[in-house]
């Protein structure tokens, strides 16, 4: 992400903070998935509907915000590469190739490592719990690497190997390829031109209404026909939602007026988002209403989705515009923590079952253990050059620290 100061509209520190906060919100959300009635890899004996309204506070917008911010980061990086090599056709082509190589290494290496090393404990404990698998972890890994398809319950079979919570990485990678292809076809300066047009369009009330209308249309037309699979190749509803947000972030990355507009609209957006959340909670407890008015329910979801993003960006720009050691440290830690967190939640949840703790105490212990272990692993990884690329970190720690110091200077 591009760095900023509190008074420099061309730099967006607040989006770095938002990215960090959104990824750490995943720890709370995925811990909550252990305790709600919704399907997940493992479930608490105390699972029920008590905290589901709280889960709905972030469900509509959390991943959408991450894709928007990822688009901003990609837009800055792409423009930086093109500016460094120059606008000539051959230089611009080389810049695009460099951009794609860098993003591929940053996303695909951790994905492959995660699928082979980090993720497998999750499906292992899932089949132990759901289909009473009695084999050892080594036996399971032999089946995992053979793409065994026999772990089935009620006609639903587990797909192996799997990327589980790392599905975000291949999606961002594919969207990065789409961005590079569009930039190649449109030519030099296309991102800035598109950004100026889109930024001019998204001013005043239109900054809220137009994205809500687009997201609602996608949800109304596609949601009934395409299940959210996170499998990349058949996930058309999610692609229709996340790809436009990613591309919008890329083209709006340099449009200071747009981000100022979100700050101006932050209170109105927050009010709309909270009102829509209350309506969604009411729908949750009265599902017959959703069945009677599906288009209205999906429009309310879309309004909550976008207005929460606007509120988050607006308040973050207002209050989280500063740089410093904390931001630099957390910006480096957030990717390894994201890679590790869900496996740690699943493993610690299984270990804590024997303690028979009250659910409130157990969930707090689970969050503390996950955060502590995640940062402990990060502290090891950042110091071992061979491990750094596997967790999405660049170069050696000395090189990264030097780059940060030079940038801060």
From TrEMBL:
The chain crosses the membrane at residues 17-36, 61-78, 107-125, 168-191, 203-222, 242-260, 267-286, 329-352, 364-381. Coiled coil: none annotated. It holds the Pfam family Acyl_transf_3. Keywords: Membrane, Transmembrane, Transmembrane helix. GO terms for molecular function: acyltransferase activity, transferring groups other than amino-acyl groups. The keyword Transmembrane helix applies. Residues 13-377 form the Acyltransferase domain. It comes from the Bacteria. InterPro entries: Acyl_transf_3_dom, Glucan_succinyl_AcylTrfase. PANTHER family: BLR4337 PROTEIN, GLUCANS BIOSYNTHESIS PROTEIN C. This is Acetyltransferase.
């Amino acid at each position: 992400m591009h760095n900023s100061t509190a008074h420099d509209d061309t730099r967006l520190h607040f989006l770095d903070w938002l990215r960090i906060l959104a990824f750490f919100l995943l720890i709370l959300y995925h811990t909550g998935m252990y305790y709600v009635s919704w399907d997940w890899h493992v479930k608490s004996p105390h699972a029920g509907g008590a905290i589901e309204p709280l889960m709905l506070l972030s469900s509509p917008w959390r991943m959408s915000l991450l894709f928007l911010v990822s688009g901003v980061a990609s837009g800055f990086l792409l423009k930086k590469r093109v500016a460094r090599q120059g606008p000539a056709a051959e230089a611009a082509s080389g810049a695009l190739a460099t951009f794609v190589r860098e993003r591929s290494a940053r996303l695909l290496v951790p994905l492959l490592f995660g699928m082979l090393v980090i993720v497998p404990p999750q499906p292992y404990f899932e089949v132990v719990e759901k289909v009473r698998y009695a084999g050892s972890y080594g036996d399971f890994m032999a089946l995992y690497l053979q793409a065994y398809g026999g772990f089935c319950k009620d006609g639903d079979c587990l797909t192996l190997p799997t990327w589980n919570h790392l599905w975000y990485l291949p999606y961002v990678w594919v969207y990065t390829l789409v961005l590079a292809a569009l930039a190649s076809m449109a030519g030099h300066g296309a991102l800035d031109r598109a950004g100026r047009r889109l930024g001019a369009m998204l001013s005043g009330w239109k900054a809220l209404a137009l994205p809500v209308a687009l997201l609602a249309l996608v949800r109304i037309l596609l949601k009934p026909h395409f299940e959210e699979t996170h499998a990349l190749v058949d996930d058309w509803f999610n692609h229709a939602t996340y790809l436009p947000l990613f591309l919008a972030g890329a083209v709006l990355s340099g449009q200071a007026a747009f981000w100022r507009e979100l700050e101006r609209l932050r209170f109105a957006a927050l009010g709309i988002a909270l009102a829509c959340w209350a309506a969604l909670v009411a729908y949750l407890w009265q599902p017959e209403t959703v069945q009677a008015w599906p288009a209205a329910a999906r429009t309310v979801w879309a309004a909550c989705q976008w207005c929460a993003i606007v509120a988050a960006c607006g308040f973050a720009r207002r209050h989280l515009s500063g740089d410093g050691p904390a931001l630099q440290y957390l910006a480096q830690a957030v990717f390894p923590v994201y890679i590790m967190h869900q496996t740690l939640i699943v493993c610690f949840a299984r270990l804590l079952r024997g303690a028979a703790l009250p659910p409130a105490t157990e969930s707090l212990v689970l969050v503390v253990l996950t955060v502590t272990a995640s940062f402990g692993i990060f502290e090891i990884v950042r110091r071992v050059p061979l491990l750094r690329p596997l967790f999405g970190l660049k170069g050696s720690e000395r090189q990264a620290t030097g780059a940060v110091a030079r940038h801060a200077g």
